Amino acid sequence: MIRDFSRDYSSISFNISQALKDKGMSSFAGQVVFEVRSTTDAFRYILIESVKLSGGERAKNLEDLAAVSFDDATAMINNADKNSQGYWSCSGRKGIHNSEIFYCDYVIDTYMLVYGDADLVTYSATELKNWIDQGWCTYDYTVGPESFVRLTDDCPVDFVESQTVLKVTKKLSSITARGWNYRKMGYDKMPSFLLGTDASGFDLFKRAFAGLRTSLILGVCTAAFCFLFGLVWGAISGYFGGNVDLFMERFCEILGGVPWIVVMTLCILHLGNNIFTFFLALCMTGWMGTAHRTRTQFYRFKGREYVLASRTLGATDKRLIFKHILPNSMGTIITASVFMITSVIFSEATLAYLNLGLQGVQSFGVMMASNQQYLGIYPNLVIFPAVVLALMEISFNLFGNGLRDAINPSLKGSD
User: Is residue 11 part of a domain?
Assistant: First the structure.
């Protein structure tokens, strides 16, 4: 210990030779450690402005000692981080001594950041060879980065900063270069987009419809399954009635009593955030709406005169269900089932806002959730997708009404 733990701001000088003699030693190997212990007045920091380590004429490591010495605390921190001599250790929190702080105003052009002059980027030797083969540039790695010559504007690199050559094969592995990002992305000039881009530089117009494609696939598949399964379930329940209907209705009530968000969360936790998980969770309870509507329609039509007449003439249950009752019920059922597509997309968007959206897939909900933080600054990132969602719902509304009118013309013009 050089000095007791105390508040002392004076210089310290210590001759380690005398300490070695007191211990009966002629040499030693170790580290210089600056340590701060807990004190009653709560001072837990130490400021070392300069350190000089020197040795006598017989010291074998005079150059090493000089290398780890410093005249300023800033140099000490830089030395401690880069030092490989092993003379001291620094495991605590470090600060900068005599640093200067400058406050300034600046604006970051994120568009230029994505498409403009890029930071240093590492390109593989294969990418460089492809540019050379296409006549975009020339390069000789045996000479070095200064041999790079850009021949056309198609080349994404302006100049090469450094290169990496394999030690064993002596072949070029990669280059580190600076250029323009839009060239690397395949554009001939700085691109511009009709509705702008999102924070990652993706075309908002294309991104919206690319995400909508995933959402539509999920919505159509879910609606189709729920429609078919709910139709069969509701038809059996409504046609046969009695104990069959009682049992099937109680089952639906029990299943419907489980909150949908709980079912979805459990499926995501056990099966992951993917399209199949969303499809399975939505189908587990989504079919019950179609089943209830089908059951209601069958109770409405199964007592009609034409059904009784067909039964009197010997029609089977299958014929009565699929030939006489179901066609007259399809208008109302199919209209509500078409609306299920937009309902599924809304459900997926809701989960995305709860950080339960699809992972690894660009969907409509994931896109809107990622852009909501920019609503106050760039409202178009959310307004445009919302307009697309509204137009999609109107389209499916008109499509469902058209199907209803085509299947059951007697309902044409009704709400």
Answer: no
199 in a structural domain: no
Which token pair is 291? Answer: 């089943």
Cβ–Cβ < 8 Å for 377, 307: no
Indicate if 211 and 344 belong to the same structural domain. yes
DSSP state of 156: S
Residue 322 lies in a domain: yes
Q: Say if residues 200 and 373 touch (Cβ distance below 8 Å).
A: no
Q: Are residues 287 and 389 in the same domain?
A: yes
Strands 32-33 vs 88-89: parallel, antiparallel or unpaired: parallel
Burial of 110 (0-12, 13-18, 19+ CB in 10 A): middle
What residues in the chain have per-residue pLDDT under 50?
none
State the residue range of the domain holding 399.
204-411
Sheet containing 157-165: give its strands across.
121-124, 172-179, 157-165
Give the type of residue at 141.
Y
CB 207 within 8 A of CB 367: yes
Task: Please state whether the predicted TM-score (pTM) of the whole model is above 0.90.
Answer: no
Phi, psi (5° rounding) for residue 145?
-60, -30
How do 149-150 and 32-33 pair as beta strands? unpaired
